[in-house]
Design goal:
Chain lengths: 537, 327, 256
């Protein structure tokens, strides 16, 4: 059994696979996990407020094993922001109540989970990316890892190490939001036929250390409104950890219309709002990162089982966008997939029909219970968002702190508005490198690192479009939506401009793969071990 | 800042020579000793040392100790450790100072260890604190400076980074006494058999060793303009380096890249031409002793680390610099 | 050939480390760590010698429990077994203490060759290997750029040392010996899946560091270097500005 992706979904699946025999008997299967980050957990970026229910299902004794889940949510606030002011919600609507939840660092939790998984006998290979799926006919039979030691022209360097074919009876794809393997699988089999298109958001986050007394550990604040216009979807969050550590983040829907919009700039603006600026004053930004999240909900989840493979977690889209929570659902789906996979392997039948049991488990279990009731939540919103309404209709408020227009029936990138020639005016935000930062300075704090002498892992099929059509039609939005300044339009020697890809800046957020209006950017994994090194995020 | 006289133990400076000629960095260490204060002797070990000893005797120090032995003709760690351990045990200094050369790195740690001490290596400064000596040394690749207080009894052994003190600041006081210090060395016990040193063009430039660096950034516009920077480098006796976009475009090889994914350098002089000063570049060069920036944008962050700045067009400033250097 | 390679775990090279509350060390509780770069080259050199002459490569690391990370990595790359001298205090120890810890591990076995990196990225002493040689009574050579292939691997070894300013020198010394290895001496290999699997079964002997010697010094403070000079802008037309800059560089900065 092979799991690709060592996030909460993949590790829950691996742990379940390795320990299930303790309850149901039989021989333990051989389980391996591939994770592209150098160290387990290093590519984890989340809020995060954890609903511990899934962890308790996976590992009832998680507390005595010392899971780094220690700070219960103590207070819950929601504000609607205008440029200078904040309007508190008088009460916290039930779906947003975080009683019984914990404020955590996901990459610490995942690092700990990785230790548990290894102790259970799983082979965890960190620093190895799944580059492509292996097929026999239409059956997935495993994964090929990426080559290592290839120079930027594609030649083999002295230390060249070819990718390895890892064959497995069942491959569990836990490659996260817009996973590169899941993407090819969904395309090949049309797994999303008849489903709503997946829509995404990108979360940009900094970890701060602020002077004591600003917010008690366990305080959770969500905001909506400023700096986004009404029709745009997104919001801010502030989660307080112990010792003055504060997670500050901003989530922006990747279905915005204005091609001049820059999520990083919006995040800087958010920090300049008095609510946030006062909390951060005198503090220090210590980490930065970004990551997309799927939030199309129940109707956007593709078929998640094929011959020989299952899709779990964010890769499948199991995220409750009303609660901005996906960790527990990722784990639940990992466990369900593990149970289905184990039975299939024991029955010596890993066909799609047999693996459909995974879908049945999802249908009958906690995932559907949570996601189905909110599947149509957009119907509650007849029109746009008016701050005044927030006080009146609680039914509206149950929509959550981040409020989206009616669920679009089109993929987010198709909503981008064309600009008539040239670059749209993207208002800059002052950068003081204390409260606000430019992208490059921020990226330094993601710890991202790639061997520079390797082929670009951002494949742009046709860069002519960039300097011609895209420049005209959208003003090269990639130079703005990428939170790591990977894309630049620079003067070409031959006159005009050309696309410059600074691939080694990449923080693996997947925004470009999602939001590129021509869908010609393909994010493929760089040499294993490359990417951000998140800690405490 | 000299320390109170009551706390000034005798200082022994270990001079360095090759083939009888004095390595000028020795003067930097003499300057350090003079600032720290105390009676200073300078020890010179080797063979055929008359000339170098005379040169050293012009320093404002009390004594030059000449440690002559045929077994020391060619440097070996075993030979130098044996000889200098005897000198230090006999002279009983409170402080032994070395220039932090490759040779010092090769033997001084073992020498200190033989004396039951640990060399405090690669220091960049010294100050007096509470009557004792506190040494400054870079840590974490120059990100921090540590203040280090030697513990236990002397002799404390310290080496100073090249360039930390100014050789021309060493006071020359006239005629220090020269004294031969006899040592016994068993030549057969020297285990290293060195061959003749030779020079070799390195396969890769080692920018970390360069004294001066001229670095170009995207302000240079095109590969065809690189000769401009090359000319300035030549006039300064500097190596050419670059920011990432330049190496990324293949205008210069990747081993010339300065910054977080390139080299970390600390030359005496770093001239940044048309480099904006992104943090990833700064971390690779802000340890340079003197930084010059030429940039047409007065707000470019490179000026935050520069000692000297010219706000202007590099295509005008660089030729003028070359001309000025030619005079 | 029985080879010991000493490896250190250090804070990742461009990690934004910060000073801790004691103001005498960095906050490494939340840092990312990696194998010290020159040590990785030393390990690679050890593995190549073993491939050439046969024998065994044993990695030794002195440090707190967390150094298990780099030990595992070394085993995955091909080292045969490991010795971990474990003590939390070793994280901040001076070179004398660390060398003594390593000596306690290496002394009991008779290695033909002990390899260390040239220096560490964190404290940057560049002397642990040399002190270790002295404590073990071994001859040593530093800043090694090449180990000659012609030696028989036993009895003597011929190595190329880097001197300053583009000079080099070959040195022959008897084994057992200690060499400190310069980065870039070879091409590092990648850990393979097979190597990682195999590493799990390899022997890691953890020994306590029973009697550490006293520290040779105390770090009384750690601070961010302050720039004492303000940027001096040289104005005027290019020719005048250039002439003035050259004068300043020559007379004030003495950088020419
Ligand atoms: C800003 C933000 C805030 C959030 N806040 C919360 C919150 O407060 N509470 C909550 O419950 N959830 C929150 N979420 C959502 C939550 O983080 C995700 O739902 C959860 O992490 C999904 O887990 P996963 O295992 O499916 O995917 P991931 O966590 O993305 O893990 C996927 C793993 O697979 C690896 N991988 C990907 N491709 C490959 C490949 N080809 N080869 C090898 N490895 C690969 C990745 O490196 C990664 O480690 C938030 C998300 C974001 C972005
Ligand atoms: C993970 C990561 C690693 C990185 N590693 C490195 C690294 O190792 N090294 C590195 O350098 N960068 C690195 N970078 C890139 C870094 O962030 C910057 O993008 C890069 O340093 C910018 O190079 P530059 O200053 O040459 O170009 P720019 O930022 O484009 O600056 C050009 C400058 O030239 C000036 N200029 C233009 N014309 C003229 C003229 N005629 N006369 C005078 N001035 C002029 C402009 O005012 C501008 O300030 C890294 C980035 C990341 C994210
Ligand atoms: S290149 Fe794409 S995946 Fe990488 S940081 Fe930019 S938007 Fe995210």
């Amino acid at each position: 059994m092979l799991v690709v992706g060592g996030g909460p979904a993949g590790l829950a699946a691996a742990y379940r696979l390795a320990t299930r025999h303790r309850t149901v008997g039989g021989e333990p299967p051989v389980v391996a996990v591939l994770e592209k980050s150098r160290e387990p957990g290093a590519h984890m970026l989340s809020g995060a407020v954890l609903d511990p229910s899934a962890l308790a299902d996976l590992m009832p004794d998680w507390q005595s094993r010392g899971a780094p889940v220690a700070v219960p949510v103590t207070e819950d606030r929601i504000y609607f922001l205008t440029e200078r002011r904040r309007i508190p919600f008088p009460i916290t609507p039930p779906p947003l109540r975080n009683h019984g939840n914990y404020v955590i660092s996901l990459n610490r939790l995942v690092r700990w989970l990785a230790e548990q998984v290894e102790a259970a006998g799983v082979d965890l290979f960190a620093g190895f990316a799944g580059a492509e799926l292996l097929y026999e006919g239409d059956r997935v039979v495993g994964v090929r890892t990426g080559d290592r030691g290839v120079d930027r022209e594609g030649n083999r360097k002295a230390a060249f190490e070819p990718g390895v074919d890892i064959r497995a009876r069942v491959t569990v794809l836990a490659d996260g939001v817009r996973g590169n393997l899941t993407k090819t699988l969904v395309e090949r089999f049309g797994l999303d036929d008849g489903r709503l298109p997946q829509v995404y958001a990108v979360g940009i986050k900094e970890l701060w250390e602020v002077p004591s007394g600003r917010l008690p550990a366990g305080a959770v604040i969500h905001t909506m409104g400023y700096p986004l216009p009404h029709e745009q979807f997104g919001g801010g969050f502030l989660y307080a950890l112990p010792d003055g550590a504060l997670s500050v983040g901003f989530v922006a829907g990747l279905d915005y219309r204005d091609p001049g919009f820059d999520p990083h700039t919006a995040f800087q603006r958010f920090k300049r709002h008095p609510l946030v600026a006062d909390l951060l004053a005198g503090g220090e930004m210590v980490r930065y990162g970004a990551k997309a999240l799927p939030e199309g909900g129940w109707h956007a989840v593709p078929r998640c089982h094929v011959d020989g493979a299952l899709i779990v977690g964010d890769a499948a889209g199991f995220l409750n966008s009303m609660r901005l929570k996906g960790i527990h659902l990722a784990m639940q789906s990992g466990m369900a997939a593990a149970d289905a996979a184990l039975e299939a392997v024991r029955a010596n039948d890993a066909s799609a029909e047999r693996l459909a049991q995974y879908a049945a488990l999802v249908e009958s279990g906690p995932i559907r219970r949570e996601l189905h009731p909110v599947r149509n939540v957009h119907q509650a919103f007849a029109g746009g968002l008016l701050p005044g309404l927030l006080y009146s209709g609680l039914s509206l408020v149950t929509g959550g702190w981040w409020i989206r227009d009616p669920m679009p029936a089109h993929a987010g990138h198709t909503r981008l508005r064309r600009v008539a020639g040239g670059e749209p005016a993207a208002a800059a935000v002052p950068v003081d490198r204390r409260l606000t930062f430019d992208k490059l300075t921020n990226v330094h704090y993601s710890g991202t690192r790639h061997d520079e002498d390797q082929p670009s892992h951002l494949l742009v099929q046709d860069t002519d479009i960039c300097r011609t059509r895209c420049r005209e039609e959208y003003g090269n939005p990639c130079t703005r939506f990428c939170p790591a300044a990977v894309y630049e339009m620079v003067d070409a020697e031959a006159g005009g401009q050309r696309l410059q890809i600074n691939a080694s800046n990449c923080v693996h957020c997947k925004t470009c793969d999602i939001m590129d209006p021509y869908q010609i950017i393909d994010w493929v994994p760089p040499e294993g071990g490359g990417g951000p090194r998140y800690e405490g995020m | 800042m000299p320390m109170p006289s009551s706390a000034r133990p005798p200082v022994l400076v270990i001079a360095e020579q090759r083939a009888g000629s004095l390595n000028p960095v020795t003067w930097e260490t003499v300057a350090a000793a003079q600032v720290i204060g105390g009676p200073i002797s300078v020890a010179l070990a080797g063979a055929g040392l008359a000339g170098a000893a005379t040169e050293l005797a012009s320093a404002d120090v009390s004594e030059v100790l000449v440690v002559e032995d045929p077994a020391l003709e060619r440097y070996t760690p075993d030979g130098f450790i044996a000889a200098l351990a005897q000198v230090i045990e006999r002279e009983r200094p409170g402080l032994v100072l070395f220039p932090h050369t490759y040779q010092t790195r090769d033997y001084a740690p073992a020498l200190a260890s033989r004396l039951g001490r640990v060399l405090i290596p690669d220091c960049v400064g010294a100050t007096a604190r509470d009557g004792g000596l506190v040494l400054l040394r870079p840590m974490f690749q120059g990100k921090f400076v540590a203040e280090v207080a030697p513990a236990g009894d002397g002799p404390h052994c310290v080496s100073f980074q090249i360039g930390a003190w100014r050789a021309d600041a060493a006071a020359r006081g006239g005629a220090a006494a020269t004294r031969a210090v006899p040592v016994t060395i068993d030549a057969a016990a020297i285990r290293q058999r060195p061959e003749e040193p030779f020079q070799e063009a390195k396969q890769a430039v080692d920018l970390t060793q360069a004294e001066r660096i001229v670095a170009v950034g995207r302000g240079i516009k095109g590969q065809e303009h690189l000769p401009l920077a090359q000319e300035l480098a030549r006039s300064l006796g500097a190596e050419l380096a670059a920011s990432r976009p330049i190496c990324d475009s293949g205008w210069l090889p990747m081993d010339r890249q300065i910054g977080s994914s390139g080299q970390t350098v600390s030359p005496k002089l770093y001239v940044a031409l048309g480099i904006s000063g992104a943090i990833q570049h700064l971390v690779g060069m802000k340890g340079a002793r003197t930084i010059v920036a030429v940039n047409k944008d007065a707000d470019a962050p490179i000026f935050e680390v520069a000692d000297y700045g010219i706000v202007g067009d590099l295509f005008e400033v660089v030729p003028a610099l070359v001309a000025a250097l030619g005079e | 050939m029985k080879i010991a390679v000493c490896i250190k775990q250090v804070v990742t090279r461009d990690w934004p480390v910060r000073i801790d509350e004691s103001a005498a060390w960095v906050r490494d509780g939340d840092a990312s760590f990696e194998m010290n770069e020159p040590d990785a080259y030393a390990l690679e050199e050890g593995l190549r010698l073993k491939e050439r002459h046969g024998g065994e490569v044993v990695v030794c690391s002195a440090g707190p429990a967390r150094v298990a990370q780099v030990i595992r990595e070394a085993l995955a790359r091909g080292a045969d077994r490991a010795i971990h001298v474990e003590s939390e205090d070793l994280a901040t120890a001076d070179a004398g203490v660390v060398a003594e810890a390593l000596a306690s591990a290496v002394r009991e076995e008779s290695f033909d060759l002990v390899l260390t990196g040239l220096q560490s990225d964190d404290q940057g002493f560049g002397e642990t290997g040399v002190i270790l040689a002295e404590r073990l009574g071994l001859p040593h050579a530093t800043i090694i750029m090449e180990i000659a292939a012609d030696g028989d691997g036993a009895g003597r070894i011929r190595v190329k040392r880097e001197l300053e300013g583009g000079w080099f020198q070959w040195i022959t010394l008897p084994t057992p010996a200690l060499l400190t290895i310069q980065s870039g001496i070879n091409q590092l290999r990648y850990a393979t899946l097979r190597g990682i699997m195999a590493a799990k079964r390899k022997d890691v002997r953890t020994v306590p560091f029973a009697s550490p010697p006293p520290s040779a010094w105390n770090i009384v403070a750690l601070r961010v270097p302050v720039k004492d000079k303000q940027t001096r802008f040289v104005d005027g037309p290019p020719e005048a500005a250039a002439a003035e800059l050259v004068r300043l560089l020559r007379d004030e900065a003495r950088a020419l």
